[in-house]
Amino acid sequence: MRQRFVTIPQMFVQVTDYYSARNTSPQRGDARKYVYMRKVGKEYVGMTYDELRELTENFAAGLKMLGIQRGDRVGIVSENRIEWVIADFAIIGMGAIDVPIFPTMTSAQESYIFNHCEAKAVIVSNKFQLNKLVKVRSEIPSMQHIIVMNDDVETDEPNVLKFAEVVRFGAASMSADDRCTWFAQECAASQPDDLVTLIYTSGTTGNPKGVMLTNTNIVSNIEGSADAIDISEKDLLLSFLPLCHAYERTTGYYTLFACHATVAFAVSIDTVAENMKEVRPTYMTAVPRLFERIQGRILSAIEKDTPTKQRIFHWAIGIGRQYIRQKLAGKRPSPLLAAQYAVADRLVFAKIRERTGGRLRAFISGGAALPKDLAEFFFAAGITILEGYGLTEASPVLSVTRASAPAIGTVGKPLFNVQIKIAEDGEILAKGPNIMRGYLHDEAATKAVIDEEGWLHTGDIGMINEDGNLVITDRKKNIFVSSGGKNIAPQPIENTLTQSRFIDQVVLIGEKREYCTALIVPDFDYVKEYAASHGLSYTDTRSLLESDALLRAIQQDIDELQAHFAKYEKVRKFRLLDKAFTVEDGEITPKLNVRRHVIEKKYADIIEAMYAEP
Question: Which end of the chain is more exposed for a tag (fewer CB within 10 A), N or C?
Answer without folding.
Answer: C
